[in-house]
Write a structure and sequence with these properties.
Strand order of the largest sheet: 1-2
Order of helices and strands: EHHHE
Oligomer: single chain
Helix content: 40-55%
Number of helices: 3
């Protein structure tokens, strides 16, 4: 909230608990592969990280 960003699904709606859980555990995979999952954001069209792609989410500014 302080940063002014929200996590949405690909259509701009709020994410459900299951999608949030997949995103949370997907971060572990991004950590295990030496942060390559986070670096992917610099090279994708929608600036999605690996865990966002796995969960079908977008991080947007309000």
């Amino acid at each position: 909230m302080a940063a002014g960003i929200v996590v949405t699904d690909l259509d701009g709606n709020r994410i459900c608990f299951i999608r949030a859980t997949v995103r949370y555990f997907g971060k572990t995979i991004s950590h295990l592969i030496i942060f390559i999952g986070f670096i992917m954001a610099a090279f994708t069209e929608r600036k999605q990280t690996l865990h966002d792609m796995m969960a079908g989410c977008l991080v947007m500014k309000k």
